[in-house]
Design a protein that fits this description.
With about 525 residues, the protein is of the alpha/beta class. The chain contains 16 helices and eleven strands. Among the domains are: about 180 residues, Type I PLP-dependent aspartate aminotransferase-like (Major domain) (Aspartate Aminotransferase, domain 2); about 150 residues, Aspartate Aminotransferase, domain 1. The structure holds pyridoxal-5'-phosphate (PLP).
Amino acid sequence: MNPLDLDEFKRQGYMMIDSIIDYYRNVANFPVLSQVQPGYLRKMLPSSAPSNPEPFETILKDVKDHIVPGITHWQSPNYFAYFPSSSSVAGFMGEMLSTGFGVVGFNWISSPAATELESIVMDWLGQALKLPERFLFSTNVGGGGVLLGTTCEAILCTLVAARDEKLCRIGKENLKKLIVYGSDQTHSALQKAAHIAGIHPENLRVIKTKKSSSFALSPDSLRSAIMKDVENALVPCFLCATVGTTATAAVDPVGPLCDVAKDYGIWVHVDAAYAGGALICPEFRHFLDGVEGASSFSFNAHKWFFTNLTTCCLWVKESSCLTNSLSTNPQFLRNKASDSNQVIDYKDWQIALSRKFHSLKLWFVLRSYGLDNLRNFLRNHIEMAKTFENLVKQDKRFEVFVPRYFSLVCFRVSPLAIANKKPFCNGTNEEEDHYYGFGGKIINDDKERLVNEVNRKLLDSINGSGKVFMTHGMVEGAFVIRCAVGATLTEEQHVIMAWKVVQEQANSLLSVVSKA
Ligand SMILES: *Cc1c(COP(=O)(O)O)cnc(C)c1O
């Protein structure tokens, strides 16, 4: 048996494409959130691997019978959870070709095209984002871009670069003095990166944000935190600012934060994992104003840029900071091109040695659609999010929780609706108190808990319906429901249907309340 039998490749390849197309045609009919119980699969599959070959058809059938029920359908048009993971035909083709070539482009010589295409595509995309020229290879002043797997890696790699640069100046023995800054809205990736990078757990500053400033990190709060640290003879090192936070898509003021950081020699990384792609639209580019003061910028093309998993785009102003920290030079990788310093060896820009030919995916996406269409795809999602937002606003039982900038709508059953007992019931306050089991006057904390409980139950029943999938965020003690538009197959009808599902579930949840 030949594991790379080309006739079988052809036969199975066409069958596989057909089965994926079938999946996409039917995906809207599956419960979006998988309804299986933990451990379901072990009961269905044999306890050990087969000794003898099994036909492709049998395996495909098991996929249908056993795997698909345990899939949460991220590509469903009714998927509105977390952030999207938007795929496309072009992304798929690029991924397929990358796997087809099967090259491992860790250094230039191991596949020159892989390295060179990556540097070209990162310049193309950097230009589309109007990144300062210092972040591009073409200007030849030390900046450039790299494709990593995830934002977690981007933050870890840049944090390590910032750490080492600082320690190089002040001495390695000062590691325990280095301080890392973020806000209470910064992704947990920063905490993990700080931990791995050996930053003392007490040296991660989580600066509080407020609803009244839409959960953006205030430059004044940053400066106060830094000044306190400096007074205590600690050393400010790294700030992670976010454009499009995970809970509510809040936007930190990049320019003013960079201005503060500059006074203390802090490396600023701008994490735009979700919203970054939208910055190719001129109407959103202002969110990046001042990014020339940052040291690095990243976004996930696999989130909301039609590039199949996994593709995190990272640009740095001084690539030597990354390579000083991350390069290795073992004998078995030595070659003339690398020794000449004329080439990029991307192994020195990342954690792992091995890397896929990921730039093919981005190259196919950028060429197959063109920037104008990509902008239109994104604007279309934003329009659909606006539609959803307007539907929320028209129902007085609900509130839009924070201003919407991109394609994420954060909403909840309004505390006012609950305070007025409308439309829950027409009884007295005592009845309301009784129903919610507090058995007395509702004090503020209880009120908050009650509002959260109602919204949590609502989200559970929305997702239990199987018709849509949304997730939640917890901000300033408030449980908010997130509707993130951005799955490639989503159309306006799906968004309208999603709102109907929310209303239906709210109707029945609230009628239970009024009967009690
Ligand atoms: C999704 C997300 C991340 C984490 O991304 P990974 O690629 O999974 O590591 C980090 N930051 C923000 C703002 C995100 O939305």
